[in-house]
Design a protein that fits this description.
five-stranded mixed beta barrel, Arc Repressor Mutant, subunit A, 17 helices, 6 domains, 33 strands, OB fold (Dihydrolipoamide Acetyltransferase, E2P), five-stranded antiparallel beta sheet, alpha+beta, 734 residues
Length: 734
């Protein structure tokens, strides 16, 4: 590791000129006996793209040779972009310079053209350092002498050629998995063999199964893992109760969605004589069963997270644990890790105790029922849960205090409407509606947030290896774009070098309830970085929190599980220097792995939602709806309907004028009529067409008054056509 860092540092020096292995060996005084290891190190660095070998077998770092390392993002039309590993603008790769790269491949690109101070550049892929598409899912097409697979992922532009002997009884139109046997180059398509026939296109569940396979999500647990889980007792041995805080006599409830089966958090509340609140957050002690390095732990780390796909869950842990002994089901003893906090009337945590405990929950409550009790004063439910009624009122009181405190310190509270997609027994979407974030949801949200912060701060000052949830400061350039946009709407932001979330939160406060609320919130969200897991505690920008972690969902998230293990070992005084060294490596790997699996899960969940939304809209072609312009691009604008479905009004359908894209004001402006379509505008649309395979929905604008066309203006119509052709090349600019 040290030799790698030294080599990179040496090659980054200003005076360095690319050298051969022999020259580098002389400079670093490499002995003859160590030469083979030295060569292997450089070859490995070349393979990873850390160094580049020239045609004359000399080595240098990519940055100094006008080269960029990154990930190739393909487009169905053949061109693509390289998303650089380092902070710099994306590189456009024309189709003739893709040189056999496929979507997702790790590549080295050479810059061929740069303009606008490096903000826009073109390049050519000169090396593929890692192929990621070992298998491809798609539709098989047969012909007389050979077959081919049309990839389901439209970002892979080439079909996969399948020799007749390799088709494994696949028939035209079937959904298959093909393993690539020969990679593509500029002259030929990739070659492959069929390894699995999933079924016929249109079969029940095949659409979601295709997405599961595409993202390589594990469908079954390996027999070794299932057998290990089956060996775990459903009864807690008496020895496990020893040394735990016994809370079985305390009123404790779980509050979840109706469909939830993996109940990993429960809460209790008490109003103290001094007027403060005693909030207990009790989390399933999964680490008691999933011990370090046992088969369950290895599989959980590999999966990283549970994935929720409308009609099914791909769990991180087998059902025996997730729905059984670890789930905080009502009126049964369960082992937990509790964080009990004393919170004053301003929301400040005055004291806390993190301890192993045993609980027996009083009730399994739902968000719907608790909301009916608190918001709707439902008499039947109040009577049924009369012994908990005052507790729910106290919880609501504390929730409002905690929320007020969080907002006061500047936490950015996005109030996006998530959607609930309801399928019938054949997997067909029959209803899509916004998912309500009511008082019960908000209560649990606030209690989990304060608990996560308290645990993170406790472990930070304990100076233990840990997995934190961090959210870095936003990108300065993206914030400037956001600032300019809201300024045009009449809102001012005072941006300084160190932007505080409170400044951005104040904008959200001002737009609350206004027609531009969704649009401004969406644009702000796009300006922020994505939260991730990290071994260093650098704070959470969006929450305006110095310390934050994920402690409250160990059944479905690996970071929560590993930090439970660390907390318990720390509480018992079991962490020595040797363990710290080992844990440092483990938390670093778990942070990286969990961040990656989280992204994959989010992408899969989003694609399933988009698929079902497109399917839902196929039944509504020709119908009219009102919506809001949620995004404006050079090729048209997207309109979001009240049920959260989005569709594109393509610029070619705006036939009343020639429209010019104003990037600064995020709008399309008619050259002749000066008519403006801008972000946040309310519009009426008609559902024009839907492509379920591409998850694309197209709308047409419905005008209140028909605008008279100037039939004599042939030149104007020619301009429109020319503009549409140019726009096609830039469409869906990744």
């Amino acid at each position: 590791m040290i030799i790698r860092e030294t080599l990179i540092s040496f090659m980054n020096e200003q005076a360095y000129k690319p050298m051969s292995i022999q020259e580098l060996a002389r400079i670093f005084d490499i002995k003859k006996a160590d030469m083979k290891d030295f060569q292997n190190t450089i070859n490995d660095m070349e393979k990873n793209g850390e160094v580049i070998r020239t045609r004359t077998d000399h080595f240098g770092v990519p940055e100094k040779m006008g080269l960029v390392l990154g990930k190739f993002q393909g487009h169905q039309k053949g061109y693509g972009f390289v998303i650089p590993d380092a902070e710099r603008p994306d590189i456009f790769i024309p189709s003739s310079f893709v040189n056999g790269a496929m979507n997702g491949d790790k590549v080295v690109a050479k810059i061929t053209k740069e303009d606008n101070n490096g903000k826009k550049c073109e390049g050519e892929i000169i090396r593929i350092t890692e192929r990621v598409n070992k298998t491809i899912i798609g539709k098989y097409q047969d012909s007389k002498n050979f077959g081919f697979v049309v990839p389901d992922d439209k970002r892979i532009a080439q079909d996969i050629f399948i020799p007749k002997t390799m088709k494994k009884d696949a028939k035209t139109g079937q959904i298959v998995i093909a393993q690539i046997t020969e990679w593509p180059d500029n002259r030929r398509n990739p070659e492959g063999k069929i390894t699995e026939v999933l079924g016929n296109s249109g079969d029940k569940g095949i659409d979601i199964l295709t997405i599961i396979k595409k993202y390589k999500l594990p469908e079954e647990f390996p027999p070794k893992v299932e057998n290990y889980a089956e060996g775990i007792s459903d009864v807690i041995p008496k020895s496990e109760y020893k040394g735990r805080l016994d809370l079985r006599g305390t009123k404790i409830v779980t509050i979840d969605g109706e469909d939830a089966k993996d109940l990993d958090d429960a809460v209790s509340i008490e109003k103290l004589p001094n007027g403060n609140y005693k909030l207990g957050v009790h989390i399933a002690d999964v680490s008691n069963y999933v011990k370090e390095k046992n088969p369950l732990d290895k599989e959980a780390l590999k999966r990283g997270t549970s994935v929720y796909l409308i009609d099914r869950v791909i769990p991180m842990l087998p059902k025996k644990l997730s729905n059984g002994i670890c789930s905080l089901n009502p009126k049964v003893d369960r082992l937990t890790l509790s964080c009990i906090m004393e919170i004053d009337k301003t929301g400040k945590v005055l004291d806390h105790n993190i301890t192993e405990s045993v609980i027996s929950t009083s009730e399994r409550m739902t968000y719907t029922d608790v909301t009916k009790i608190l918001r709707d004063n439902d008499e039947d439910l109040i009577k049924r849960y009369d012994y908990l009624y005052e507790d729910f009122k106290t919880m609501e009181e504390l929730c409002n205090i905690l929320y007020k405190k969080r907002v006061h310190r500047g936490a950015i509270d996005f109030d996006f409407e998530e959607c609930k997609i309801i399928l019938n027994e054949n997997g067909k979407p029959i209803e899509i509606k916004p998912y309500e974030r009511a008082i019960a949801n908000r209560m649990i949200e606030e209690f989990m947030l304060v608990c996560n912060e308290t645990v993170a701060e406790h472990m930070f000052w304990a100076n233990m290896p840990f997995v934190y949830r961090i959210h870095e400061d936003p990108d300065e350039e993206k914030l400037m774009v956001f600032n300019e946009f809201v300024h045009n709407l009449g809102y001012t932001i005072r941006l300084s070098k160190e932007v505080h979330p409170k400044v951005l939160q104040s904008v959200l406060e001002k737009i609350k309830g206004k027609k531009e609320e969704t649009v401004v919130s969406t644009l702000l969200l796009r300006s922020l970085k994505q939260a991730r897991y990290a071994p260093e505690c650098t704070g959470h920008f969006g929450l305006a929190a110095k310390y934050y972690c994920h402690f409250t969902s160990p059944i479905r998230r690996y970071p929560d599980l590993i930090i439970h293990r660390i907390i318990k070992a720390f509480l018992k005084g079991e962490i020595d220097d040797k363990r710290i060294t080992r844990l440092n490596t483990e938390v670093e790997y778990a942070s990286k792995q969990s961040s990656e699996t989280e992204r994959t899960a989010q992408d899969a969940e989003r694609e399933v939602d988009d698929l079902k939304k497109a399917e839902y809209m196929t039944e509504r072609i020709g119908q009219e709806f009102s919506g809001i312009i949620s995004s404006v691009t050079s090729f048209g604008f997207f309109v979001e309907l009240p049920n959260t479905i989005e569709g594109l009004v393509h610029i070619s359908d705006l036939d009343d004028d020639y429209y010019i894209y104003d990037e600064k004001h995020l709008s399309l402006i008619g050259e002749r009529t000066k008519k403006i379509h801008r972000l946040g505008d309310e519009v009426k649309i008609l559902v024009d067409k839907v492509n379920v395979d591409l998850r694309e929905i197209y709308f047409k604008l419905v005008r209140d008054e028909e605008v008279e066309e100037d039939e004599d203006n042939d030149e104007y119509h020619d301009n429109v056509e020319e503009n549409h052709d140019n726009v096609e090349e830039n469409e869906e600019n990744h």
